[in-house]
């Protein structure tokens, strides 16, 4: 079974100086945990994290990545650039980017492929909105989005990616899917991955994200096909991250 991943999405929070201070504080308080920790920070914070965290057990990465290798794409950051500063991960297809930057699953698929080809592990986000959930169509919706978002990820690369199920109605709202809901969706995602990647499907870590906190993470991650969490709001304070890591220990 893969090691649990506790992925911390800072979103557009923390300047480089704040990131540096945060990483120093975390390093001094980090509890023993079975989980792998990774901070997904604004790109401008990454050199500060590299300075403080390289050589430690805490990984880090970006919140987005370009679908292109290099060239005339103003404002974009490539996999090679991220790799050069030591980033391991990049979130792709977060619902906030799908919404505010109109990222389609086809773009997400290109970004996931660009990440893998450049040696960065994509954390590929999928999940339904409230309208879909209210119609009871969350499983077919999420699996369609998943298959489209993986359409450029080749079979032999399945252990080099992470899938995050994040129901949009649970992100930043304080509403969490029940552990059972998260577990059922993770089971459905694992089945879909088996269809796509056969024996490699077991290597893919499936995270749950949506208002995860120290008080609910253990129950959610106890579901057989949930291999960790993607955490937004509760990732900003070191104390809360220590609580999340302890709850997973
Ligand atoms: C997220 O942004 O991926 C997220 C899950 O946020 P929150 O934990 O705040 O719901």
What does this structure look like?
The two termini are 16 Å apart. The chain has a single domain (5-247), classed as Alpha-Beta Barrel (TIM Barrel), CATH 3.20.20. It has an 8-stranded parallel beta barrel, surrounded by 5 helices. It is globular and about 45 Å long. Helix content is 40%, strand content 15%. It is an alpha/beta fold. It has helices at residues 16-29, 46-53, 79-84, 95-100, 105-117, 130-134, 138-149, 179-197, 217-221, 238-248; strands spanning 5-9, 36-41, 59-62, 89-92, 121-126, 162-165, 205-209, 228-231. The structure holds phosphoenolpyruvate. Phosphoenolpyruvate binds at residues 9, 11, 166, 171-172, 209-212, 230-234. The site of phosphoenolpyruvate has 14 residues, from strand 8.
Short description:
This protein is an alpha/beta fold. The chain has helices at residues 16-29, 46-53, 79-84, 95-100, 105-117, 130-134, 138-149, 179-197, 217-221, 238-248; strands at residues 5-9, 36-41, 59-62, 89-92, 121-126, 162-165, 205-209, 228-231. Strands 1-2-3-4-5-6-7-8 form an eight-stranded parallel β-barrel, surrounded by five helices.
């Amino acid at each position: 079974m893969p090691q649990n991943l506790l992925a911390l999405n800072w979103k557009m929070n923390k300047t480089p100086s704040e990131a540096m201070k945060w990483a120093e504080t975390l390093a001094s308080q980090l509890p023993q945990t079975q989980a792998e920790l990774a901070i997904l920070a604004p790109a401008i914070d990454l050199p500060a994290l590299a300075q403080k965290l390289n050589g430690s057990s805490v990984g880090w990465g970006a919140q987005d990545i370009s679908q292109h290798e290099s060239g005339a794409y103003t404002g974009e950051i490539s996999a090679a650039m991220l790799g050069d500063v030591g980033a391991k991960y990049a979130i792709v297809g977060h619902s906030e980017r799908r919404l505010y930057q109109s990222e389609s699953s086809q773009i997400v698929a290109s970004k996931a492929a660009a990440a893998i080809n450049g040696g960065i592990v994509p954390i590929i986000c999928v999940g339904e909105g409230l309208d879909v959930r209210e119609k009871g169509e969350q499983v077919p919706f999420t699996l369609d989005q998943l298959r489209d978002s993986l359409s450029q990820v080749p079979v032999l690369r399945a252990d080099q990616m992470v899938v995050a199920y994040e129901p949009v109605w649970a992100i930043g709202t304080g509403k969490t899917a029940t552990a059972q809901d998260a577990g059922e969706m993770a089971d459905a995602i694992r089945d879909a991955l088996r269809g796509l990647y056969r024996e490699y499907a077991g290597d893919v870590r499936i995270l749950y994200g949506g208002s995860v906190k120290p008080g609910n993470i253990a129950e959610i991650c106890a579901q057989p096909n949930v291999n960790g969490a993607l955490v937004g709001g509760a990732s900003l304070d070191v104390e809360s991250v220590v609580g999340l890591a302890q709850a997973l220990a």
